[in-house]
C-alpha cells in the first residue's frame, strides 16, 4: 500500500520525467563545466593591446623588455602585485601566463630538490592535506607526483583547522593546497582566525609548504559584500613561519586566461631557492606582456576598477543560478548551495549518492557540468553529493535553460533515491 | 743571455702593455658576453604588435585565443614550424616563450618519471654526453639535476661520433645535449653522416634521449653560404629510433627573446608522454602571442625573408671580428677561430692555458667576454683555451674597439706564456 506522500512523489517524478524528455528532444549543447570568462568579459581587456602600452619597450629601470634578461620580472608589475598582495617587492617574482605552472614547478622542485630538505621523491611517502571540496587541478598536481591526499572538510570559515593541526604532527604530511579567498568551489574566504591558525602551524615536517592559491583575491561580485582576507605573511610575523607559505596569483581572470601574467609571493629564503632554480630553467618570462599589463592597469586601483566591470557581467549570471535554485529546490530538503561574495563558482550539495547520477542525467540532456567527484581528490566524493556550478561562461539565455534542466535532474534523482529507499 | 727572438717578444710585449694601459684609462664598458640580438634587430619585428595580427582573436579552427584551452598550441603555428622542421603537425607542440624551459621541463620529467623507464632521480648515476665546446645553459641543466657530464670533442662535422658510439654502451649514459646546426659556439653544422650516425645509435639505455636543440636552424649569415642539416627524424626512419630524439626550436632570435614562441618536435610516443604531463602543468600557453606570430609571418617563407634582415645586420658585425682577428692574430700561432655560415658566435681558441687570463685582462679593461670555461661542463676547459665571442649585441663602433682590445690581450697573454716557458 502506498501512502499519499509516496503517491505524490511518484506523480511529481513522472511530471519531471516528461519535462526531461522534452529537454532531451531539444538536442542541446550547453556547457557549465569550467570556470572560464565569457566573451563579453574577454572583450573588457582588449584595449590592452594598444601599441601605447608597450610602445617604448623600456621598463622604468631602463630594461629593454624586448630582449633577454630580468629573471624575476619588471618592477612595474611587482609594484602592482605588491600593492594587491601587501608584500614587499623583494618577496615577489613575476612569471609567465599561469599560476598553475608556477605551482606545478614549485612542487616539482620540492620533489627533485626538497625544500631545504631531502628531495620528496626520495621519501617513502609524501602526503598533502586537501580541503574538500576543492580545486581539481590542485589534486591533479598531487596525484601526478604521487603525493597522497588527505581530505579535510571545508567549514564556514575555511578548512577544519582542528583536523589540520592534528594532521601536521605526521612528518610525512608536507603541505596543503588551498584557495583562501572565494574558494573553489565553495566561495569561502578564510576567517582571520583560520589564517592565524595556519600561520601558527608548527608542522613536524621542517619542509612543510602551504600553497596559498590566491586566485580570486580581487574577484568580488558585489560592491557592498566584499570579503577581506588577512595577509598570511603578516599573520606569520607573530610566529616566524613565513617559509611555510607560497602564495600565487595571476591575471588569468583579470585580462586573458593564457595570455596574462602570474606572480609568486614568498619569504626571502623561498624566493632565493626559487630564483636559484629559475636561473637554470629560463632566461626570463615575457616582459613585453608584463609591461603591457603594468601600463594598462597602472596600479592596484586600476585592477580593482577593471574587476568591477567583470562583476557587472558576472552578477546577473550568478543571479540566474541562485534564482532558479531558490524557485525550484528551496524547502525540498534535497539540495543546498552557496551564495558567494566573489570567485567563479556556486557549490551545490544534493542528496547523498545523487551527484553522479545528476551529472549524467544533465549530460544526456546536453548540459555539461563539472564532473561529479572532480572537487575531491582522486575524483572520489565520499558522499557523492557535491557539484560545482560554473555560471560564468554560457550566455544568460543558455544559462537559464541549463539551470532549469539541472533543477529538473536534481529533483528527479533525489525523488528516485527516496522511492528506492522506500521500496527497499 | 737572451736570443733575438726573445728580445723581440719582450719589446712587443711592452708595446702591447702600453696600448693596454691606454685602453684601461678609457674606463670602457663593452659587452660581448651573451648571444643577444641588438636593438636594430629587435626593431625588425616591432610591426608584429599591430592590432591586425591578433584582431579577430580566432584561430583558423575557431578557437578563441583569448580564453583557456588548447594545450598544444594553435594550428597556424604548427603549420609554420612543421614546414621549418619538416615534421608532421601531430609531432609538434607549441610552447611559451622559451625552448630553454622546454628542455629543462623535459629533463625534469625524466628525473621524476623517467622516459618510459625508471625515474632518473632513482638511479645511482645518470650521465650525459656533452659535445665541447658547447652551450653553457645545456651544461647548467645537467649540473642542476646532478647529471654527470662527459666531454666529447666537436670536430669539423659534429661531435666525435666514434666516442659517442662507444659511450652509449654504458647504460647509465642517458643522453646528449647538442646544437646540430650552427652550433654554439663553433658554428658547426652536423654533416649528413653525423646525423645518420646519431640516428643509428643503439644505446644500452632504453630511455636514451638526444636533446636536439635546433636553436639556429634559420639563422644563416650569408645568401651564398648556407648549411643544410639533415632532418633527424627522417634519418631515424631507417632505424626506427625516433623516440631517442627531442627537437626544440624557438623564435627568441627571430622576433623577441622572452616574448616569442617555442616548439618541440618528437615521436608520437614522446608527444603523448609530454602532453600527459602538460595536462597537469598548464591549461595552455599564450595563444594570442602564437596567433600574432603566425599571422605576422604567415609561413616558413615569411620567417626566411625576415631572417635575411637579421643577417644584414649581423654580417658586418661578424666581419669586424674576423677582420680584426685576421689583421692582428693571423700567422702568429697564438690563436685560431671559426668563420661560421650562421648562428650567433665565433669560437676562438688561443694558446693553451691563456683563455682565463685573457678574459680577465679584457674585464680589467672594461670588455666583458663570455667567461672562460663557460663553453665546457662545470665551467672547466681542460686546456683553458676556448673563448666564445658574441659579436651580435654591441654597436659596430663598440665592437671594433672591444675586439681591438681583445686582440691586444690575446697577444699579451700568449707572449707572456712563451716568455714564462723560456724562463722556466
Task: Report on this structure.
The structure is a homodimer of 424-residue chains. The first copy, chain A, has 424 residues and is α/β, with parallel strands linked by helices. Chain A has 2 domains: 4-32 and 304-423, Aspartate Aminotransferase, domain 1 (Alpha-Beta Complex), CATH 3.90.1150.10; 50-299, Aspartate Aminotransferase, domain 2. In chain A, 42% of the residues lie in helices and 14% in strands. In chain A, strands 2-9-8-7-6-3-4-5 form an 8-stranded mixed β-sheet, with helices on both faces. In chain A, helix 1 (4-24) packs antiparallel against helix 13 and helix 11 (300-329) packs across helix 13 (396-423). The relative contact order of chain A is 0.18. Chains A and B meet through helix 4, helix 5, helix 9 and helix 10 of A and helix 4, helix 5, helix 9 and helix 10 of B.
Features:
homodimer, 424 residues, alpha/beta, Aspartate Aminotransferase, domain 1, Aspartate Aminotransferase, domain 2, eight-stranded mixed β-sheet, three-stranded antiparallel β-sheet, 13 strands, 42% helix, globular
Describe what is shown at a glance.
Chain A is of the alpha/beta class and 424 residues long.
Helix and strand layout, with pairings?
Two copies of one chain form a homodimer.
Chain A: H1 4-24, E1 30-32, H2 39-44, H3 75-85, E2 92-95, H4 99-113, E3 127-132, H5 136-144, E4 148-155, E5 158-159, H6 161-167, E6 173-178, H7 192-200, E7 209-213, H8 232-237, E8 245-250, E9 262-266, H9 268-281, H10 287-297, H11 300-329, E10 335-337, E11 346-350, H12 355-364, E12 367-369, E13 386-389, H13 396-423
Parallel strand pairs in A: 1-12, 3-4, 3-6, 6-7, 7-8
Antiparallel strand pairs in A: 2-9, 4-5, 8-9, 10-11, 11-13
Helix pairs in contact in A: 1-13, 4-5, 11-13, 12-13
Amino acid at each position: 500500500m502506498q501512502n499519499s506522500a509516496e503517491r505524490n512523489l511518484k506523480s511529481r517524478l513522472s511530471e519531471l520525467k516528461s519535462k526531461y524528455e522534452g529537454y532531451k528532444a531539444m538536442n542541446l549543447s550547453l556547457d557549465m563545466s569550467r570556470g572560464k570568462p565569457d566573451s563579453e568579459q574577454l572583450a573588457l581587456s582588449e584595449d590592452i593591446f594598444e601599441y601605447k602600452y608597450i610602445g617604448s619597450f623600456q621598463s622604468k629601470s631602463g630594461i629593454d623588455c624586448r630582449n633577454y634578461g630580468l629573471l624575476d620580472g619588471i618592477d612595474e608589475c611587482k609594484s602592482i602585485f605588491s600593492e594587491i598582495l601587501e608584500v614587499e617587492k623583494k618577496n615577489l617574482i613575476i612569471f609567465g601566463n599561469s599560476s598553475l605552472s608556477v605551482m606545478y614547478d614549485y612542487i616539482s622542485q620540492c620533489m627533485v630538490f626538497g625544500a631545504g630538505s631531502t628531495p620528496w621523491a626520495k621519501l617513502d611517502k609524501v602526503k598533502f592535506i586537501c580541503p574538500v571540496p576543492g580545486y581539481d587541478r590542485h589534486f591533479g598536481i598531487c596525484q601526478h607526483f604521487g603525493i597522497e591526499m588527505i581530505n579535510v572538510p571545508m567549514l564556514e570559515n575555511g578548512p577544519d583547522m582542528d583536523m589540520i593541526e592534528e594532521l601536521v604532527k605526521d612528518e610525512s604530511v608536507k603541505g596543503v593546497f588551498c584557495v583562501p579567498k572565494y574558494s573553489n568551489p565553495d566561495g569561502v574566504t578564510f576567517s582571520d582566525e583560520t589564517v592565524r591558525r595556519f600561520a601558527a602551524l608548527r608542522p613536524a615536517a621542517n619542509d612543510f609548504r602551504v600553497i596559498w592559491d590566491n586566485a580570486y583575491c580581487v574577484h568580488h561580485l558585489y560592491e557592498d559584500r566584499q570579503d577581506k582576507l588577512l595577509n598570511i605573511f603578516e599573520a606569520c610575523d607573530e610566529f616566524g613561519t613565513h617559509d611555510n607559505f607560497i602564495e600565487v596569483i595571476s591575471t588569468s581572470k583579470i585580462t586573458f586566461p593564457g595570455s596574462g601574467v602570474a606572480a609568486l609571493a614568498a619569504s626571502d629564503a623561498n624566493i632565493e631557492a626559487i630564483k636559484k632554480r629559475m636561473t637554470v630553467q629560463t632566461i626570463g618570462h615575457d616582459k613585453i606582456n608584463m609591461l603591457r599589463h603594468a601600463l594598462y592597469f597602472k596600479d592596484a586601483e586600476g585592477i580593482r576598477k577593471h574587476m568591477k566591470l567583470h562583476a557587472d557581467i558576472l552578477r546577473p549570471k550568478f543571479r540566474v543560478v541562485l534564482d532558479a535554485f531558490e524557485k525550484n529546490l528551496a524547502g525540498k530538503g534535497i539540495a543546498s548551495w552557496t551564495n558567494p561574495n566573489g570567485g567563479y563558482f556556486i557549490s551545490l550539495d544534493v542528496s547523498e549518492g545523487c551527484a553522479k547520477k545528476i551529472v549524467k542525467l544533465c549530460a544526456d540532456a546536453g548540459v555539461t557540468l563539472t564532473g561529479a567527484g572532480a572537487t575531491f581528490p582522486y575524483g572520489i566524493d565520499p558522499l557523492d553529493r557535491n557539484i560545482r556550478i560554473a555560471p560564468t561562461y554560457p550566455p544568460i539565455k543558455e544559462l537559464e535553460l541549463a539551470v532549469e534542466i539541472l533543477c529538473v535532474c536534481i529533483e528527479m534523482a533525489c525523488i528516485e533515491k527516496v522511492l528506492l529507499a522506500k521500496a527497499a
